[in-house]
Structures are given as structure tokens and as C-alpha cells.
Amino acid sequence: MKVIISGGGTGGHIFPAVAIANELKKRVPGVEILFVGAEGRMEMEKVPKAGYNIVGLPIAGIVRSLTLKNLLVPFKLYASLKMARKILVDFNPDVVIGVGGYASAPVLYQATKLGIPTLIQEQNSYAGLTNKILGKRVNRICVAYENMDKYFPADKIVMTGNPVRDEIVNNKRDRNFGIEQYKLNPNLKTVLVIGGSLGARTINLSVNNGLNMLNQYNIQVIWQTGKSYYQTATQVAMGYKNVRVNEFIYDMDVAYATADLIISRAGALSISELCLMGKPTILIPSPNVAEDHQTKNAMALVDKHAAIMITDTDSIGTLMVTASELIKNPEKMETLASNIKKLGIKNSAELIVKEILGLAKTHNS
After folding, report:
1. Which of 9, 85, 259, 318 is the most exposed place for a label (fewest CB within 10 A)?
2. Are residues 317 and 202 located together in one domain of the fold?
């Protein structure tokens, strides 16, 4: 069996793609998997590290400012379409999967023209323009949110959730282990603050401004800052014995297990992990994403009373006040935890692979 997985650009596209590939390897001995990404993007480094071959297309998106680079976009798209067709003909896959990102568009488009079974894995609650167009052409669309028939044909949609890392799905850590690792007080409540792998300026400023208040309420903090704010945060935290600053958290399973309350961006992958963890959560959607999809992701939880949302603009003034008040309200904490846990799907990768195998059978019959 041969499978092509196309797309990337961000961790939110790459990690689910690798999780799908890993599940395929488990289920189908001898499966051949080829990734197709965009030259110069994150997938060209991350996918080989995960043990898979990847080919890069010259495709690029439109830059949202006046630049001569935008004049090259149509030429790069044409070259990518030609190259994608050649890859498909040479590799001859049984199924082609698109996970979002620049490279998935030409690969999925050409696969549908060649009659190869195709599947989109849509991570967000709001489908981007490319996936909406491709949704009419592909065979199956795996989604993580309800009501996606606003964007896609209802008969093609399958609810699978987003695949997340194994150590999150099967989290073996508990609070006591985390408290020991971070050298925190087991009798105090702990807030985990994560702004994505690069950190988030407004979230960092909100924490910085609110540390005095958290300290007064005897609330501990595990604070992931990202690279640019790490030095500043380290200096600030020196005045507080219950604040742990990290440039990046590698053992997210430990951090999640330690937290009583989580503050996070609202990327699709983060939300899928948070649903599995089942902890009270405050979401601050990033304003710097296409079509404001993080706000839409967050609202899908807020509408189910499964999280609290604060806008990026309001966070500096209100985030730490909201966090402090929430931690003092055990009933509200319990309601949020119970409701978010109901939304977690543990076996997402298995469900997606089941659809892939079904499509492969139709190709080979």
C-alpha cells in the first residue's frame, strides 16, 4: 500500500500528519508513505526527523503586503501543479491525504484529476478557502468540530477529531509527579500558561502584570514564554518563589498533569490536547492567523460551556483577574473541566486511518 500525505507550514498541520503516518505504519505492515511539503517550510525539517521521506514543492502563498514576491506566486503555483502531477504518477499512491498548508492544494487537486482517492483532514472549526474548494472534489473529509456541513458536503464528512501526540493521549503522569518535577507546593493551586511554541507577547505581558495578584492569592505558575520573552520573564520571576519560567516545555504531559487551570492560545491542535486533558481552560485566540480561525475554535468550546475566552486585546487588563477569580470558584472549575473532557476524542488517528483504508480498498477493487 502506498500513501501520500501533503501539507504543513505549522506544527498544527505537521503533528497530525505524522500521527496519521505513525498509525498507518502500525496498522499496515510494509506501507510506503511519502510526504509532500512546501520548500523552505517547517515540514522540510520536521518530517525527516520523524523518520519519513519528503519532497518539497516551490509553492508559496500571497504575502499580505506590497512586495514583488507576490508576482511570482502564479508561476510557483503552475510549477507546483506540474511537479505534483509527476510525483503522483511516479509514486502511484492508493490514497492521497491533505492536512492543510500550501502544498496540500496542488497535490490534492491533481490527485482528484487523476482519479486517486483523496481525504482532507480539517483541524479547525472554520474551513479555509482552499479546503472549501477542494472539499467539493475529494472523497472524504475528516473533521474535529460539529456543524462543518456549513463548509463541506455533509455526505463526505466524518467526525474523527484531531490526532495528537501519544504521550498526551496516554498521559501516564499525575499531579504529584509534576509538582515534584517543578519543585512546587502540593497545597497550592497551579496555573499553566502556554502561548504556543514561539510564546505570545500579550499573554506574557498579562502574566507579567498579574504576578503580584497571583502571589497574593497563593497561586503557583508554570510559565512558557517562548524565546523572545524568556530573559525578561526570568528576571521578573526572581521576585516570586512560586513561578517557574520555561522558554519551551518539552514534556507537555507533565505540565498538563500538574496544572489546575490552563491558559492557552486556541490553535486546533492545542484545543484537541486540552479536551483530552479535561482541565479548566482560558483561551486567548491569536489575532495573527488566517480568517481569525482561533476565535472560531475557541467559540466552539465556549458555546458548550467548556472553556472561557478572553480576546487578545482584553487579556493584558483582565486575564489574571479572571484566572484568580476562577481558581476561587471550584464549582465553575468543575463544570468547565467536565464539559471540555466530553469533547476529547482519544482514537482520532485510528478513526482517520480507518477511512484511509476504506478509500484504498475502493482504489484497488
Report:
1. 318
2. yes
What sections of 60-103 are H helices per DSSP? 69-91
CB atoms within 10 A of CB 242: 19
Q: Residue 149 corresponds to which amino acid?
A: D
Cα separation, 9 vs 294, in Å, equals: 16
Show the DSSP H helices in the chain as ranges.
11-27, 43-49, 69-91, 104-113, 129-135, 166-169, 175-181, 201-216, 230-237, 252-258, 268-277, 293-302, 312-327, 330-341, 348-364
How confident is the model over 281-286, as a mean pLDDT? Answer: 96
Residue 275: domain span? 168-341
**Segment 200-252, tens digit of pLDDT:** 889 999 999 999 999 999 999 999 998 889 999 999 999 899 999 999 998 99
Measure Cα distances from 293 to 298, 315, 355 in Å: 9, 18, 26
Rounded to two decimals, the pTM is: 0.89
What's the start-to-end Cα distance of the chain, in Å? 13
Give the per-residue pLDDT at 365: 67
Same domain, 272 and 180: yes
Give just the sign of the alpha carbon dihedral 180, 185, 188, 192. Answer: negative
CATH of the domain at 275: 3.40.50.2000
Overall domain count for the chain = 2
In a shared domain, residues 188 and 337 = yes
Same domain, 229 and 146: no
pLDDT for 197: 59
**pLDDT per residue over 21-68, tens digit each?**
999 999 999 999 999 999 999 999 999 999 999 999 998 877 667 777
Whether residues 335 and 251 share a domain: the answer is yes
Q: Are residues 305 and 173 in the same domain?
A: yes
Give the DSSP letter of residue 291: G
Same-domain pairing of 46 and 187:
no
Whether residue 175 sits in one domain with residue 202: yes
